[in-house]
Design goal:
Elements (H helix, E strand, L loop, with lengths): L33 E6 L2 E6 L23 H15 L6 E9 L1 H14 L2 E4 L6 E11 L4 H5 L2 H7 L5 E4 L1
Length: 166
Protein backbone atom coordinates (compact mmCIF):
# COMPACT_ATOMS: atom_id res chain seq x y z
CA UNK A 1 0.00 0.00 0.00
CA UNK A 2 1.73 3.20 -1.16
CA UNK A 3 0.19 5.35 1.56
CA UNK A 4 1.01 3.18 4.58
CA UNK A 5 4.04 1.32 3.13
CA UNK A 6 2.34 -1.90 4.25
CA UNK A 7 3.05 -5.07 2.30
CA UNK A 8 -0.20 -6.28 0.74
CA UNK A 9 -0.65 -9.88 -0.38
CA UNK A 10 -3.38 -11.66 -2.28
CA UNK A 11 -3.83 -14.77 -4.41
CA UNK A 12 -6.16 -16.40 -6.90
CA UNK A 13 -6.40 -19.78 -8.59
CA UNK A 14 -3.81 -20.40 -11.28
CA UNK A 15 -6.31 -21.13 -14.04
CA UNK A 16 -6.84 -19.29 -17.32
CA UNK A 17 -9.69 -20.77 -19.36
CA UNK A 18 -10.44 -19.28 -22.75
CA UNK A 19 -13.20 -16.68 -22.39
CA UNK A 20 -16.31 -17.90 -24.21
CA UNK A 21 -19.00 -15.48 -25.27
CA UNK A 22 -20.09 -12.74 -22.92
CA UNK A 23 -18.93 -12.72 -19.30
CA UNK A 24 -22.06 -12.53 -17.12
CA UNK A 25 -22.27 -9.17 -15.41
CA UNK A 26 -25.22 -7.12 -14.24
CA UNK A 27 -27.15 -5.55 -11.42
CA UNK A 28 -29.40 -8.57 -10.78
CA UNK A 29 -26.50 -10.95 -10.33
CA UNK A 30 -23.35 -10.80 -8.29
CA UNK A 31 -20.46 -10.11 -10.64
CA UNK A 32 -17.83 -12.79 -10.55
CA UNK A 33 -14.41 -11.52 -9.56
CA UNK A 34 -12.54 -12.13 -12.82
CA UNK A 35 -10.99 -10.20 -15.67
CA UNK A 36 -11.03 -10.98 -19.38
CA UNK A 37 -7.48 -10.59 -20.60
CA UNK A 38 -6.40 -10.43 -24.25
CA UNK A 39 -3.09 -12.11 -25.11
CA UNK A 40 -2.19 -12.24 -28.78
CA UNK A 41 -5.25 -13.61 -30.61
CA UNK A 42 -7.00 -15.19 -27.60
CA UNK A 43 -9.03 -13.97 -24.64
CA UNK A 44 -8.63 -15.58 -21.22
CA UNK A 45 -10.67 -15.22 -18.07
CA UNK A 46 -8.61 -15.05 -14.87
CA UNK A 47 -9.20 -14.05 -11.26
CA UNK A 48 -10.51 -15.04 -7.86
CA UNK A 49 -13.81 -16.46 -9.15
CA UNK A 50 -12.31 -18.21 -12.18
CA UNK A 51 -13.83 -21.50 -11.03
CA UNK A 52 -17.23 -20.10 -12.05
CA UNK A 53 -15.90 -19.63 -15.59
CA UNK A 54 -15.13 -23.30 -16.04
CA UNK A 55 -17.57 -25.38 -18.06
CA UNK A 56 -18.12 -29.07 -18.69
CA UNK A 57 -15.72 -29.36 -21.61
CA UNK A 58 -12.92 -27.34 -20.01
CA UNK A 59 -9.59 -29.07 -20.31
CA UNK A 60 -6.81 -28.47 -17.84
CA UNK A 61 -3.53 -27.11 -19.11
CA UNK A 62 -0.34 -29.08 -19.18
CA UNK A 63 2.27 -27.06 -17.33
CA UNK A 64 5.26 -28.20 -19.35
CA UNK A 65 8.74 -26.67 -19.30
CA UNK A 66 7.73 -23.99 -21.82
CA UNK A 67 4.62 -22.89 -19.92
CA UNK A 68 6.22 -19.62 -18.65
CA UNK A 69 6.48 -18.44 -22.27
CA UNK A 70 2.84 -19.30 -23.06
CA UNK A 71 -0.08 -16.94 -23.53
CA UNK A 72 -1.89 -18.67 -20.62
CA UNK A 73 1.00 -17.70 -18.31
CA UNK A 74 0.81 -14.10 -19.56
CA UNK A 75 -2.96 -14.08 -18.94
CA UNK A 76 -2.46 -15.14 -15.31
CA UNK A 77 0.19 -12.48 -14.82
CA UNK A 78 -2.11 -9.84 -16.32
CA UNK A 79 -4.83 -11.02 -13.94
CA UNK A 80 -2.49 -10.28 -11.02
CA UNK A 81 -1.69 -6.89 -12.55
CA UNK A 82 -5.43 -6.13 -12.75
CA UNK A 83 -5.81 -6.64 -9.01
CA UNK A 84 -2.73 -4.57 -8.31
CA UNK A 85 -3.74 -1.76 -10.70
CA UNK A 86 -6.40 -0.54 -8.28
CA UNK A 87 -3.71 0.69 -5.90
CA UNK A 88 -1.10 1.93 -8.37
CA UNK A 89 -0.99 5.72 -8.39
CA UNK A 90 0.98 5.97 -11.65
CA UNK A 91 0.06 2.66 -13.33
CA UNK A 92 3.76 1.79 -13.09
CA UNK A 93 5.46 -1.17 -11.44
CA UNK A 94 9.07 -0.37 -10.66
CA UNK A 95 10.09 -4.00 -10.08
CA UNK A 96 8.33 -7.11 -11.32
CA UNK A 97 9.94 -10.22 -9.85
CA UNK A 98 9.06 -13.57 -11.42
CA UNK A 99 10.09 -16.98 -10.18
CA UNK A 100 10.98 -20.01 -12.27
CA UNK A 101 11.80 -23.55 -11.17
CA UNK A 102 15.50 -24.36 -11.37
CA UNK A 103 14.70 -26.86 -14.15
CA UNK A 104 13.70 -24.00 -16.49
CA UNK A 105 15.47 -21.00 -14.97
CA UNK A 106 18.52 -21.01 -17.24
CA UNK A 107 16.43 -21.82 -20.32
CA UNK A 108 13.73 -19.12 -19.94
CA UNK A 109 14.81 -16.39 -17.48
CA UNK A 110 16.22 -13.89 -20.01
CA UNK A 111 13.32 -14.24 -22.45
CA UNK A 112 10.73 -14.00 -19.66
CA UNK A 113 12.32 -10.82 -18.24
CA UNK A 114 12.39 -9.26 -21.71
CA UNK A 115 8.77 -10.20 -22.48
CA UNK A 116 7.35 -8.58 -19.36
CA UNK A 117 9.42 -5.39 -19.29
CA UNK A 118 7.60 -2.45 -20.85
CA UNK A 119 3.95 -1.53 -21.34
CA UNK A 120 1.19 -4.15 -21.24
CA UNK A 121 -2.55 -4.09 -21.96
CA UNK A 122 -3.97 -5.99 -18.99
CA UNK A 123 -7.69 -6.32 -19.80
CA UNK A 124 -10.25 -5.91 -22.58
CA UNK A 125 -11.04 -2.37 -21.40
CA UNK A 126 -7.56 -1.42 -22.63
CA UNK A 127 -6.07 -0.56 -19.22
CA UNK A 128 -2.30 -0.46 -19.42
CA UNK A 129 0.51 -0.91 -16.90
CA UNK A 130 4.17 -0.15 -17.41
CA UNK A 131 6.80 -2.46 -15.91
CA UNK A 132 10.08 -0.58 -15.52
CA UNK A 133 12.25 -3.57 -14.61
CA UNK A 134 11.53 -7.29 -14.66
CA UNK A 135 13.79 -9.76 -12.87
CA UNK A 136 13.50 -13.54 -12.90
CA UNK A 137 14.92 -15.59 -10.04
CA UNK A 138 14.97 -19.30 -9.24
CA UNK A 139 12.10 -20.32 -6.95
CA UNK A 140 12.02 -19.57 -4.06
CA UNK A 141 14.82 -17.07 -3.70
CA UNK A 142 13.23 -14.18 -1.92
CA UNK A 143 13.68 -11.80 -4.82
CA UNK A 144 11.70 -9.17 -2.99
CA UNK A 145 14.59 -8.56 -0.62
CA UNK A 146 16.94 -8.19 -3.58
CA UNK A 147 14.72 -5.69 -5.36
CA UNK A 148 14.16 -3.55 -2.31
CA UNK A 149 17.82 -3.32 -1.40
CA UNK A 150 19.30 0.04 -0.45
CA UNK A 151 20.58 0.54 -4.00
CA UNK A 152 17.16 -0.13 -5.54
CA UNK A 153 15.32 2.26 -3.20
CA UNK A 154 17.86 5.03 -3.76
CA UNK A 155 17.64 4.55 -7.55
CA UNK A 156 13.93 5.50 -7.63
CA UNK A 157 14.12 8.03 -4.71
CA UNK A 158 11.08 6.51 -2.96
CA UNK A 159 9.80 3.15 -1.78
CA UNK A 160 9.27 1.33 -5.10
CA UNK A 161 6.16 -0.58 -6.11
CA UNK A 162 6.99 -4.26 -6.56
CA UNK A 163 4.99 -7.30 -7.66
CA UNK A 164 6.35 -10.76 -6.89
CA UNK A 165 4.89 -13.67 -8.91
CA UNK A 166 6.12 -17.11 -7.91
Amino acid sequence: DPESNAICTDSFASLSPAAHGQVIDGEAMQRRDTFVVPVNDRRYEVGKSVGLALHGDHEGEVLDHDFPLSDAYAARLYGALNYMARSLPRQVIDYLVLGLPLTTYFKHSAELAKRFTGEHTINIRGDRIRVERCYVYPQPLGGYVQCLSVDAVSAVKRVPTALIVD
